[in-house]
Every structure is written in structure tokens, then in C-alpha cells.
Amino acid sequence: MIYAQTLAALDMDAVVYQVTGMCVVFSCLVFLSIILSISGAVAQRLDAKRKAQSEAAKAAMAPVAAAPVAPAPELAPAQVAAIAAGIYDAAQSSITPQVVAAIAAAVKVTVGDEARILDIKPVDTAYGQGGRAAAMNNSPVR
Predict the structure, then answer these.
(1) Residue 102 to residue 110: CA distance in whole angstroms
(2) What is the pLDDT confidence band of residue 130, given thresholds at 50, 70 and 90?
(3) Of the candidates 91, 87, 81, which has an alpha carbon nearest to the alpha carbon of residue 116?
(4) The dihedral sign for the CA sequence 92, 97, 100, 104
């Protein structure tokens, strides 16, 4: 009986207002769900397209990687001796043979056959540490 009185006391405008509000909210949720589904499908297609392009690029690069490598140019005995001496000295120090090879290649490319590497030594890091400390303290380097 209390329930019947409560229903009778309801204003019809309030009920219409509540129902309209719920319809607006649910329609917005449905719209957002549709937008997210569409954007997900587009993202999946773009990802599949990007993967296909990546696979095609890998497939195109495979024959290039399998191509024979051109033989290295002949080095003069003096050049071989200089490189060997540099590698030996590097083995005695902390410089790796890869670093020696990179330095030798850089010298050959920039200077040419005129230059010869006599010695490669590691640099003392105390000078660099002092410079960094001075820069951090904003004081001049002495």
C-alpha cells in the first residue's frame, strides 16, 4: 500500500526527465563503444600493414646479405706490420683490437696512405674528470 502511494505521488515530468537522462547516457556509451571498436580495427590494420612492410623489407635484404663480399685490398708489408704492432700494443693495454682497427680505418679514410700509425695509447681519464668537475662547479679549467 505504501508502494502504491509512492507511485501515485511521483510527478510524471520527473520520470520523463530521468528516463531521458538515462537514454542520453546510454546512447553516449554506445557511441563511444562504436568509436573505440572502429579505432581498434584501424589500428590492427595499420599494424598488420607495418608488419607486412617490415617482412617485405627483410625479404628484400636477404639476397643482399647473401651476396659475396669483395676481397679486401692488398696491404703493403709495412702496413701489415704497423697494424700488427698496433694490435700487439693494444693487447698489452686496455684498447681492444676492434678499436685499433677502427682508428686505422679512420686514419686511412681521412689522411690516406701518407699517414702511418706509430702508437695507440689509452688516455688518462684524470684530465677529463677534472674538466667535468670544473664544468660542474662553474669554475675555469686551469
Answers:
(1) 12
(2) confident
(3) 81
(4) positive
